Amino acid sequence: KEFGPDCRLVERIEENQYNTYASAEWRTKKNKCMFVGLNAKGKPMKGKRTRRKNTSTHFLPMVVPPR
To answer: Where are the transmembrane segments (predicted)?
Structure first.
């Protein structure tokens, strides 16, 4: 409902034409990015468990026609 620093994401287009989204604000203790990821049941994964090459963090962009 409210936009804050946790809502800012960095979008990256990967070599396989999928998009990944990393938090612009948060990093792990080892200075690695925390990515948005969904598990097999569609539930969000914890940021510390996500990696850029993990397929659970890859999203396919869709073109939505204007109304």
So the answer is: none
